[in-house]
Structures are given as structure tokens and as C-alpha cells.
Design goal:
The protein has six helices and two strands, in the order ββαααααα. By secondary structure, it is mostly helical. Helix 2 (about 55-70) crosses helix 5 (about 125-160) and helix 5 (about 125-160) runs antiparallel to helix 6 (about 160-175). The longest helix is centred in the last third of the chain and has 37 residues, at about 125-160. It is elongated and about 80 Å long.
Amino acid sequence: MNEVDGDQTLGRHETPGSEDGPAIHPSFVIEAEPLVEGIDRRSIGYVLKRLMSNTSSVIGTVLLVFFAVVAFAAPLLAPCPEDSRDGRRCRENVYQVPRFGYTSEPQPPSAEHRFGTTTDQYDIYYGVIWGTRTAFKVGIIIVSIALLIGLTIGSISAYYGGWVDEILMRFVEVFQAF
């Protein structure tokens, strides 16, 4: 145990003859990105360049854009069919999958039903397209609620600090454990 300015430090190993402080192994040193004149790190171009250089970020962005396009283009991709048995209900509620018969035998994919039909003759393609729209809406609602709760707890924790911060962080960690 070393004494430095009256404080006791535990677990620090100093190099012999060094008075600058603890020795740091070279593998733990992180090189900072060099500052370049004229680059504003807050600019949209800089942020997009950094995001597009990360493969996971690109894949996630492509998937998110794809699902958003499918969700917003649902009326064009899967319009309410005219020849369904219950077409009237389909026009009243587009989220109700149209039924094309009453046999208990599912139909394979065809020109009329791209993904086939279920055992109750519901069109799978129609359900997937309109289900994407529903899932997208639910996702936006859940992320908005989580953002609101996180910002509120984080702001209270940062403002008061101390024991309030510790209690709120333990509370949040309980939820993160599940």
C-alpha cells in the first residue's frame, strides 16, 4: 500500500523510480482520433460517415427502412381483394385478414396467394404485410414509452445525485436483470 498526499491507494503498482503515478500497460492505452482542422464532429456528414463505416449499423438501418417502407406501403402492396368471401369486412377493417373459402386444407403459394393460405383459408401474404404495419406502430409506441421513462429517471438521478442516484440506479438494474 502506498501513501500519496495522505491518501491511501490500493492495488496500484508504480514503476520503480517513477513519480508520475501508476504504470499503465501499453495495451490499455487508447489512441485518440487525431483532430483535423475543418471537421465538425457534430455535422451530419461526419456522423453519417461514421455510421456507414460500421457493418452492423448499415444492416440495422437497411432493415429498419425496409420495414418502414412495407408498413407505409401496405395499402399498395396488399390491397383489400374484391373476390374474398368476406370482402365487405375487409373494406371496413383492413387489419382483418380476408378469407377465401371454408375448406380446412391450406393452399400452397400461387399467383393469387403469394404465401399461400392457412387452414381456414386466410391469405398469409395479406396478414404479413398488414401485420408489419401493426408491429411497426407497436414498436414506435414501446420505444417512445421507454424513452420517456428513461429520460425521466435519468434526469432525476443526474439532478439530485448522491443517494437518490444510487437508489434509482439499483431500481433500474432490477428491471434490466430481466
